[in-house]
Amino acid sequence: MDQIMKSYPEKLSRSHIKFLKKLFPDNESCFDDGTLLASGVDASRRHAKPLALVRPKTTQQVSELLRWAQQQRVPVYPRARATNKVGGCVPVHRGVVVSMLGMDEILDVDSRDFVAVVQPGVITADLQKVVEKQGLFYPPDPASLKISTLGGNISTCAGGMRAVKYGVTRDYVLGLEVVLPGGEVIHTGGRTHKNVVGLDLTRLMVGSAGTLGLVTQATLKLLPLPETSASVLIGFENLSGCLQGAEAVFGCGILPAAMELMDHNTLKALEIHSDVPWPEGTGGVLLLKIDGSAQSVAADLGQIEKALSAVHTTFMEQGTGDDQERLWELRRVISPAAFNLAPDKQGEDVAVPRGSVAKAIESYHEIGRELGVTVLCFGHLGDGNIHVSVMYDKLVAGQSERALKAKKEIFKSTLFFGGTLSGEHGIGLSKADYIGMQLADAEINIMNGIKRVFDPLNIMNPGKVV
Amino acid sequence: MDQIMKSYPEKLSRSHIKFLKKLFPDNESCFDDGTLLASGVDASRRHAKPLALVRPKTTQQVSELLRWAQQQRVPVYPRARATNKVGGCVPVHRGVVVSMLGMDEILDVDSRDFVAVVQPGVITADLQKVVEKQGLFYPPDPASLKISTLGGNISTCAGGMRAVKYGVTRDYVLGLEVVLPGGEVIHTGGRTHKNVVGLDLTRLMVGSAGTLGLVTQATLKLLPLPETSASVLIGFENLSGCLQGAEAVFGCGILPAAMELMDHNTLKALEIHSDVPWPEGTGGVLLLKIDGSAQSVAADLGQIEKALSAVHTTFMEQGTGDDQERLWELRRVISPAAFNLAPDKQGEDVAVPRGSVAKAIESYHEIGRELGVTVLCFGHLGDGNIHVSVMYDKLVAGQSERALKAKKEIFKSTLFFGGTLSGEHGIGLSKADYIGMQLADAEINIMNGIKRVFDPLNIMNPGKVV
């Protein structure tokens, strides 16, 4: 690989630029410093400056670009809204950043097939609004859904709060149009909800972070839109109370659409930031959403209340219809509220088996105490995917180093509990040094072998670990 | 590949047999003709005689076997209960059949993690019974579930009737232990419900039909067990009535656990075979199951009845609790009942986009009429996966040829409607000649490339198309 890496161009030649300007006329290609700098950063706050930015409008353009890029060994960095938190969009080996935002059409929404066909630049929330008007439902709901695109969601296998009932992006991708390095266009999967012909290239592409090929179109599975939903916010004295509460709900056979947890440090941050509904003595909160027909939601609410009567709670509040939003607003402001505890944040999105969530969170707190940084845990209890924010002050001597040390300790503890370094965000640049903690060489070798099948010259998002 | 194929041994040498007998003592290895013949057939009724049958009890044995097989270029054919309908288990290049039935332990069922860890030889229905006792639920329900194993289900990505709400086997496999050709043991995925570290090797293995490696352990996702269920059998005048009925149900935001269709020829076969509840003039039947809490199921039943009042039905009958079984018995006896129409059957399991089911089925009937064979369609309307049985009499001159011709025409029509050659059964031997109708060379090349990464000498289930 090293030999190939050396051959990436340091700068574009005149003929390179001529080619790109012809293929991407007018503002479809950019070479000015300001645009290039802006196109080389993502939500990880890491950055690198590419050699060019192009904005394709057609699959044909992408195909010609990838044929050229393969011939010239120019790195290609696909990009949409760059909400990626681990550096997935950063062009570390320069090359060409390919903004997919120009391919942003919803090509088809079919209420009989329960299928939508989209270009990768469509914003997730926009698709959701459009399909909901037809009584249809696209469940994946990453926190970034109002900004991020379906192409980005596919490339990261984005999750979200509804994953506990509805699964993640992987579960809604039926078929893909993918341009391979060299320019060949392949079609994986299809428009049917079931399909077992050939190896599952569709799910192999999902979550591959643009390292195998460039997705130019996706066929997505839709569900019937649940008639209504309701939410319940429940306070407990401590974390293990939350877990007991969660088990009581699952125990009556109800699969909530979302089951979110907030630990005591999260509550503390919210108490400074907002008016909060829970009483003193609340050391952990669960926020549930259930959905279905109006009658079944009412029935499930009754069941949940009954099940929770056997567990010690500090308070409980229900919301239905638009009135739920005030409960979910508390969940949404956690990220900004966290900065009330310290000015700097290092965020992880580990996942552990659901039954180990309480013990894992306790261990993260212990790591924070030992290292003198505040650890705040919240997130998707329903599927064990916990957002762990290490809050610190980089102006205080040694705190940056201690936050970094906490990261490794958090990973160690997560793996001890049978968990994974990432439930949603991926590895990218931020966790590349740690992947060996989770994957064995034999597994990495297989992944590298698959990468070479798709991308023998390593031009697709090079420098990244999926 | 041809060069490698030639080197498969015609027979086992003395030292081969010595090795196998030492690694698999006593009845763990067999070389007698009767056993070998029996171990070379599957539910496709195709057969071939292997050189040996072995029955491993440990991953270590499988690892040593695959190291040896790689060195000696001996084909390895994994097998469990061989309910595969497309020849997936048939040892077409001889070699060693590996029965996984000796590895049949449920290693763990964890009601807090919502996870089961199983060996591949566990029968699917047995796992379901065990987890249900703990209030847990493993949804995949292929028709063979009382016979077939989880290893087999994983290797084929088995579906079933509940796929419309709960998805297929793929959606419940969190992690795998896999022995690779050469003997290396890898672990894919893990015990967490979310995991985006590395390429998705887990889903790549699911449905790969033993062509990439041999699964020796699986970690499966469980759900909370729904409190109860109810079923509704609804008659319509014709196929398009069935589709309207289905749309009315989906339209009120209800996702049934199962939504099965029976066409007029299926009804005819059942009428000869059983007492049937529908009146004359019924030309299509829907059979639905809904599940959830007792109250929500009651609520949903009311909603469904209301929704269907807007559609012309010929009759409707509900069943709850054990009383549902008599309705499902009708669905279960379709396969034997079909032989009332003709003595021979050629079965396909195509899938089309849900909205095209009626038109596709009409086209299959038309193909039957033109070729003088009876076509009977039933199956999973909810996900567009239709079982198409061509009933014929091979003793009548020309009928076998016409059935075979019907197969190709059915595939053509399916693809015309945006469908797939297989929703559940896979390609195997039976459809190997047709895969080029659906997949382009570029896609097949990528799949072959991935195969070579895992299995460079093509010893895993050689001769099969996934």
From TrEMBL, chains A, B:
Pfam families cross-referenced by the UniProt entry: FAD-oxidase_C, FAD_binding_4
Entry protein name: Glycolate oxidase subunit glcD
Keyword Flavoprotein in record: yes
Organism lineage: Bacteria, Pseudomonadati, Thermodesulfobacteriota, Desulfovibrionia, Desulfovibrionales
Domain FAD-binding PCMH-type: 46-225
UniProt KW Oxidoreductase keyword: yes
Source domain of life: Bacteria
Record-level Gene Ontology MF annotations: FAD binding; oxidoreductase activity
Keywords in alphabetical order: FAD, Flavoprotein, Oxidoreductase
SUPFAM superfamilies, per database record: FAD-binding/transporter-associated domain-like, FAD-linked oxidases, C-terminal domain
Cofactor requirement: FAD
Organism of this sequence: Maridesulfovibrio hydrothermalis AM13 = DSM 14728
